[in-house]
Structures are given as structure tokens and as C-alpha cells.
Amino acid sequence: MKQQGFNLIELLIVLSITGVLLAYAIPSYNDHLTRTRRLMAETALMKMAGHMEAYFAEHNSYEGANFNSLNLPEQVAENHYRLVIQEASASQFKLAALPQEIQARNDARCGSLILNSHGEKHIGGYGNLNECW
């Protein structure tokens, strides 16, 4: 008599192997998503800095710059970061990308990304600047 199908031991072995693979794959995938969103926020900050320079060229000051006048969205990286103008004086600006909800939880090491008018980059977290930017 020929046996068809899988027995319980074979099924348990397959499920165990699948569980081990998923235990490694899911955290790696989440880390990839976190880094990708951070990169999107970095790109948005650099773009916003360019718009701030164009605003300065037109108004001879950074004062009064806002998202409407810059024609930029406030939410970026699929709504995982919120851009803010922390400072906009006559001669300098300071921009930040603030992580929201799950991004804030997953990326506490880097935290907020900060860029000023001198091109200096900072982070709001406890991590290494070069790893975060």
C-alpha cells in the first residue's frame, strides 16, 4: 500500500524552518523600511533647502517662508515624517524632518533629521550622525 500526503512530523519540520526564516526576515525587512523612509526624508529636506534658497533669492530673506510659499508638502516619506521650519530669520534657516508614529519608534537612534542654511546636518537622536545621514 502506497502512502500519500505528508505525515505530522514532516509538516512540523517545514513549519519550524519557516518560523526560523521569518524570525530573521521580518526584522531585516522592517529595518530596510526604516532606512528607506529616512532616506526619503533626507531627500525632502535637501529639496526644501533648495526651495528656501530660491525664496531668499526672491525676497532677500528667509523670513516669511512657509510650505505654501515654497509649494512643498508638510508630510513626506509616505506620512512617516513631518517637515518643519524651525527657524527662518533674515540670514539663516533651520529645517527638520520629525519622525511620526512607527518611524519614531523604529528609528529612535536617529530621531529627527536637521539641516541648516550652512549645510550642517544634525540628528535629534543618540546615534552616529554619519549612519543617520
Can you lay out the helices and strands and say which pair or pack?
Elements (H helix, E strand, L loop, with lengths): L7 H52 L7 H4 L4 E2 L4 E8 L4 E7 L1 H6 L6 E4 L4 E3 L5 H4 L1
Antiparallel strand pairs: 1-2, 2-3, 3-4, 4-5
Features:
4 helices; 133 residues; five-stranded antiparallel beta sheet; alpha+beta; single chain
Radius of gyration: 23 Å
Number of helical elements = 4
- Return the average pLDDT rounded to an integer: 94
Low-confidence stretches: none
Element-level helix/strand string: HHEEEHEEH
User: Which structural class should the secondary elements be placed in?
Assistant: alpha+beta
Shape: elongated
Alpha-carbon distance between the two ends: 65 Å
Spatially, the strands of the biggest sheet line up as 1-2-3-4-5
- Tally of structural domains: 1
What share of the residues does DSSP label as strand, in percent? 15-25%
Largest pleated sheet: 5 strands, antiparallel
What is the helix content?
Answer: 40-55%
Number of DSSP strand runs: 5
What can you tell me about this protein's structure?
The protein is an alpha+beta fold and 133 residues long. The chain has one domain (8-132). It is 50% helix and 18% strand. It contains four helices and five strands, in the order ααβββαββα. The chain has helices at 8-59, 67-70, 101-106, 129-132, and strands at 75-76, 81-88, 93-99, 113-116, 121-123. A five-stranded antiparallel β-sheet has the order 1-2-3-4-5. A hairpin with a 4-residue loop joins strand 4 and strand 5 (121-123). The longest helix is centred in the first third of the chain and has 52 residues, at 8-59. The radius of gyration is 23 Å and the shape is elongated. It starts with 7 loop residues before the first helix and ends with a helix. The model has no long low-confidence stretch (mean pLDDT 94).
